[in-house]
Automatic annotation (TrEMBL):
Pfam families: UBA_7. This is UBA domain-containing protein. Residues 1-20, 59-81 are annotated as: Disordered. It comes from the Eukaryota. It comes from Bicosoecida sp. CB-2014. Residues 19-60, 81-122 form the UBA domain. InterPro entries: UBA (IPR015940), UBA-like_sf (IPR009060).
Amino acid sequence: DPDLNDPPESGGGGGGGVEPDAAVVAAVASMGFSENAGKRAAIATNNAGAEEAVNWVMGHMDDPDLNDPPESGGGGGGGVEPDAAVVAAVASMGFSENAGKRAAIATNNAGAEEAVNWVMGHMDDPDLNDP
């Protein structure tokens, strides 16, 4: 059961769920949004395209789970574990350990620079420092 607030109007969402199109996700990320926001947008719009995905993200900026990994149709448990080196690098910049963990997960442990950029882009998130 997908947790997306606004399912696509075009219907046709099969039981297994849509896999996000990497090109759509990359286009959303290039606009400064998180990779997870891009994945959620791609899924919600059935990979309709970059413009539709960006519009979807813009309409869901206040969603508390916008930057959380999308629910997958049945993959393994747990999801991404934060890389300790990425978390430490973020913490060394003066951010909380929890912010580092969130950034590492949101960027799929892409690296310290990406994680710090993610934190900088989410400074106003009320849950940034929550465990």
